[in-house]
Every structure is written in C-alpha cells, then in structure tokens.
Write a structure and sequence with these properties.
The complex is a heterodimer. Chain A is α+β, with helices and mostly antiparallel strands. Chain A has 7 helices and 9 strands. Chain B folds into 2 domains: 101 residues, Rna Polymerase Sigma Factor, Chain: A (Orthogonal Bundle); 77 residues, Winged helix-like DNA-binding domain superfamily/Winged helix DNA-binding domain (Arc Repressor Mutant, subunit A), CATH 1.10.10.10. The longest helix of chain B is centred in the first third of the chain and has 23 residues. The chains are: A alpha+beta, B mainly alpha. Chains A and B meet through helix 2, helix 4 and helix 5 of A and helix 2, helix 3, helix 4, helix 6 and helix 7 of B.
Chain lengths: 237, 179
C-alpha cells in the first residue's frame, strides 16, 4: 500500500466515492481512485452504497423522444459492421429481406429526403493498410470547406470519422466504396451525418490490399457505380 | 445480450429502441444543445454496439449500463468545452422540448418512478441538490464546482456524499427502481 493510500485511509477514505459515482473526479483522480478501490474495502462499500442512487438520476430529467435521424445513422453503421462480424444479416426485417440481397436492405435504411449532395471522399490507403502491426490514423483531403475526415485502420478494419461534413442533398445518402485495382467497388455502408456534420462509419470487410476508400453521395438506397466526382481525397502513401 | 455479443444488428436495434429516448433525454439535459446531444447519443450507442461483450449483468441493468455510457460520453463532450462556452443547463432552461412518446404501461410506470426520483432530489437541502446536479448533469468536476461556489473542495465532496446518502434513504434500494 502506498503512502498516498495510507494517508487516504487515515484522513479522507471514502470521501471520493460520491464524486466518483457522479463522474465528478478529474481524469487523473478517477484513474487513481480506481487503483485505490482495488485495495480499499471502505471505499468499495461506499461506492456500492452510492452508485445505485447515481444510476437512477437520469430518470429525473424531462423525458424526450430521440430524433429519428440518430437511429438511422446508428443502425447504418451497425448493419455495416454486423456484416463484418458475419452476423446481423441473419435476422433482417422481412421488408428488407424481400429486396435484393446485395442492395435491398439499404433502401430501407434511409427514408426519402434524407440525403444530399454528391460527395465523394477518396481515401487512399497504402498497400500496408492491413494494420496487422497496430492501428494508425490517416487524414483525408476534403473538398467541402471546413470538413475533415480521418480513417482509423486497425487489424484490417477501417473506420471513417467524419466531421463538419455538409448534409447530403435530398434523396441522397453517403456511400462508402473501396478500390483495390480497377473500378471502385460498392459497400453496404450508407450513412448520413448529424446536424453538426459528424458521423462514424465502419468500412465493411477487410481492407487488406485496398488502395482507396471512396465516399460518395448517391441516390437513396445507394448505387452500384459512383455517380459523382470525388470531393475528398486522402493520399497516405 | 447474447445476440449482441455475436454482433446481431437486429438484437442491437431492440436495445436501441428501448433506451434511445432515455439516452437522448439525459444527453440533452447535460449538453443543452440538440446537435451535441445527438452526437453524444450516436457515439454512445456505437460504443455500446462495439463493446457489448463487456456488459456484466451483475453490475446493473442494460438500461443502467447504456445510460452510464451516455453519461460518460456527455462528460467527455462537455469537458472539451469551457464552462462559459457550454453554460450550465437546468431542466427549466430546455427550450427545444421534444415530448417523449407515451406508449406502454411500462412507460407510465417509469413516469411514476421518475417522479419519485425527482422528488427525492428536490427534497434535498438546496446546497446538496445543487452540487449533485452540477456534477452529474453539468459534467463539472468537484474542483470546478468548488471554484464556482467559492467553497473548499472538502465541503463540496461532503455535500455530494450527504445528498446521495439521503436520496438512498428516501428511495430505498434505487438499483431496483428502473430495472
């Protein structure tokens, strides 16, 4: 036990439990308190006693309805990533299953009027993009003023983090493409951005050998070939 | 949750539908801005999706786990901004009200429970209620609250502790309230 722990035991042990359960410790204090908890039964008991109260505080706020846009964005990413895990497609909703296996569910993801202008993001990923030696982040070039796009590569998986991107035009969605050799290939990743222009999107499949990841704005439901010119380009080699 | 572990999007959608309103309500109460609240909820649910395997049912309900993630994300978002920039929002100051849908008996039951919890919070002495709300909903650290109220840090911690302990006595076992 450290001197700090001894001091804590003798003077203020248990004192940090309340700010801890309320999320009111600084990051440094939070980390230190977690370490302290491992060896202090007094603080563990205090946390156990108070955390139940803290966990019900959200019920005290006025209850609102979550905007539908959030679900559309979240589920777009989730379905893309579920494909990566080899699951999620096993139990699609009937109306989605009824459509074509490759493109069908996508039409159900984005209601008419949700998408906008054709935006194409091209992120060039070097041949070493498989990321087997750890994660790395690549900045993309974006033609839209003030917008930024970074790509996190980790273990063959790529994730786009989009910020301050303009809303796509009516009846369009953003679509992610991958390019190895030859023409860009479509993916199941369709997305819209938040009102602040932000989105996080997983790129379906393993990106090993992928040289470019493209994002375009396409008509609702997606396209099989890009219909507009790239507006974001990242050269990473 | 077992399906979520295996990356089942349909299972995740059920969880989203059950808890999205509560998540957005909490995020909006904390952030005070619709756009920021939307970003917080989106990031929180994607985090939940990607970390489903870390859920431990022994440590609380899925709802508690979900709202805990939302709370942490909102704190992160708030602490990236200055106190002056974000302001401190209370429930009376929410302008963009979006009434929640009233759908099921479960939601009516939740309303009763919510009233119980609000009452317990409001019955606290003002100084205890205030520090709890500034911390939990305002995302402020105890040091920032002490500075804001010009009081010793120890006093702030003590008020938090006393307030939570009194709420616990009022509510009984709150861990069971919102299961």
């Amino acid at each position: 036990m450290s001197e700090k722990d001894l001091n804590r035991m003798s003077s203020d042990c248990g004192e940090d439990a309340a700010p801890y359960v309320l999320g009111a410790l600084t990051d440094e204090e939070h980390e230190a308190f977690l370490v302290h908890l491992e060896s202090c039964a007094v603080c563990r008991d205090e946390v156990a006693a108070l955390s139940g109260v803290a966990s019900v505080l959200p019920a005290a706020v006025p209850q609102l309805s979550a905007p539908e846009d959030i679900k559309r964005r979240v589920m777009s990413t989730v379905r893309s990533e579920a494909g990566l895990r080899g699951a999620g497609q096993s139990a699609p909703e009937p109306r989605r299953r009824a459509a074509s296996p490759r493109w069908g569910w996508r039409a159900a993801l984005v209601p008419a009027g949700a998408l906008a202008a054709a935006v194409i993001a091209i992120i060039l990923i070097g041949s070493g993009g498989s990321g087997s030696s750890g994660s790395r982040v690549i900045q993309a070039q974006v033609t839209a003023p003030r917008a930024s796009v970074s790509v996190k590569l980790d273990g063959g998986h790529a994730e786009l983090n989009v910020a301050k991107m303009p809303q796509s035009p009516p009846n369009h969605v953003y679509e992610v493409w991958v390019k190895r050799n030859g023409a860009p290939q479509p993916t199941d990743a369709l997305f819209t951005v938040s009102s602040a222009g932000n989105a996080t999107v997983g790129v379906p499949g393993n990106v090993s050998g992928v040289k470019q990841i493209l994002v375009t704005a396409e008509p609702t439901g997606g396209s099989k070939v890009p219909t507009s010119t790239p507006v974001i380009v990242a050269n990473v080699s | 949750m077992q399906l979520l572990y295996r990356g089942n999007a349909a299972a995740f959608e059920v969880i989203y539908d059950r808890h999205a309103d509560a998540a957005f309500s909490l995020a909006y109460r904390m952030c005070g801005q619709r756009a920021l609240a939307e970003d917080v909820v989106q990031e929180a649910f994607l985090s939940l999706w990607r970390s489903g395997a870390r859920y431990d049912h022994n440590r609380g309900s899925v709802r508690t786990w979900t709202l805990g993630i939302v709370h942490n994300r909102a704190i992160d978002a708030l602490r990236k901004r200055s106190v002056r920039e974000r302001g401190i929002v209370d429930s009376e100051g929410i302008e963009e009200r979006i009434p929640a849908r009233e759908r099921t008996e479960v939601e009516f039951a939740r309303k009763d429970e919510a009233r119980e919890i609000r009452d317990a919070l409001e019955k606290l002495p003002e100084e205890q209620s205030r520090v709890i709300q500034l911390a939990y909903f305002g995302g402020l650290t105890h040091v920032q609250i002490a500075s804001m109220l010009d009081m010793p840090v120890g006093t702030i911690k003590g008020r938090m502790r006393l307030g939570l302990a009194k709420m616990r006595m009022t509510l009984g076992d709150p861990a069971e309230v919102l299961q």
